[in-house]
């Protein structure tokens, strides 16, 4: 346990940030899983809707500083490729 007042405050802030980051990371993962389940069903309309939702959640997580912008960009790009690949076939 920390002994100084400032160290005690930092422990409290770190825990608050950990919970905040966990909430947003979980929300990102859930949005991606919802998108992948729509792609698995071969429902392009639903997949397009879920893609937009997932991209929105990822962008919000970037703005809040939870994930890096390049990580969000990579994930959005991979999701867009998954929705585009069945259209080619």
What would you note in describing this structure?
It is a single chain. Helix content is 85%, strand content 0%. The chain has one domain: Up-down Bundle (Methane Monooxygenase Hydroxylase, Chain G, domain 1). The radius of gyration is 18 Å and the shape is elongated. The chain has 89 residues and is mostly helical.
Summarize this structure as a short list of keywords or feature phrases.
Methane Monooxygenase Hydroxylase, Chain G, domain 1; 89 residues; mainly alpha
CATH topology: Methane Monooxygenase Hydroxylase, Chain G, domain 1
Shape: elongated
Q: Taking all residues together, what is the mean pLDDT?
A: 94
The number of E-state strands comes to: 0
CATH architecture name: Up-down Bundle
Radius of gyration from CA coordinates = 18 Å
Any idea what the CATH superfamily is called? Ribosomal protein S20
Low-confidence segments, given as residue ranges, are: none
CATH class: Mainly Alpha
Number of separate helices = 3
Order of helices and strands: HHH
**What structural class do the secondary elements suggest?**
mainly alpha
- Main sheet, how many strands, which sense, barrel? none
End-to-end Cα distance, whole Å, is 59 Å
Strand content: under 5%
How many domains make up the 3D coordinates? Answer: 1
- The percent of residues in helical segments reads over 70%
């Amino acid at each position: 346990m920390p002994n100084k007042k400032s160290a005690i405050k930092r422990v409290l802030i770190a825990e608050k940030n950990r919970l905040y980051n966990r909430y947003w990371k979980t929300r990102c993962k859930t949005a991606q899983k919802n998108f992948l389940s729509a792609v698995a069903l071969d429902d392009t309309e639903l997949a397009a809707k879920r893609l937009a939702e997932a991209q929105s959640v990822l962008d919000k997580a970037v703005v809040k500083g939870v994930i890096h912008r390049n990580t969000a960009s990579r994930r959005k790009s991979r999701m867009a490729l998954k929705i585009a690949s069945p259209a080619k076939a």
